[in-house]
Write a structure and sequence with these properties.
Keywords: Membrane, Transmembrane, Transmembrane helix. By secondary structure, the protein is mostly helical. It has helices at about 10-20, 20-35, 35-65, 75-95, 95-120, 130-154. The chain has one domain (about 10-154).
Amino acid sequence: MHPFNAIRPPRLAVGLGMVGMIPFVTGALGLWVTPEVWRERVMEELLGYAAVILAFMGAIHWGLAMRAEESSEKAPFQLGLSVIPPLLGWVALSLPIGLAIPVFFFAYAALYYADIWAVNHGLAPVWYPALRKPLSIVVILSLLVAWAATLITH
């Protein structure tokens, strides 16, 4: 079977995806245990990482568009889609935390559905949602935990 049609994601992709969750989970939990004087810095780092990963995820869509056949009508849409996540991350970083975190929620949720669209249109591997769904859930839950920390501790 061609790897593009495999149902399960490659083990390396799963492992690296899990490693990529460490800053989300430790940042979110860190907000609950870090001395108050450091919490703002922890939140800045967490949101900065969230923006970087959005840019990375956008770049994946750019790469998928580059792999698409030039005659594909979907490639231009995919290219356009690829620049939205980093722009959302950039905008979110300029907002107050109470607005930034919802922007990140929206961006990560929308990105997951964009990933599904790419799979359904033959642009991304069949296994991609099996990788992205649990990672997206961890990211969104981490952001919720972080948001709750800011609401409760302030």
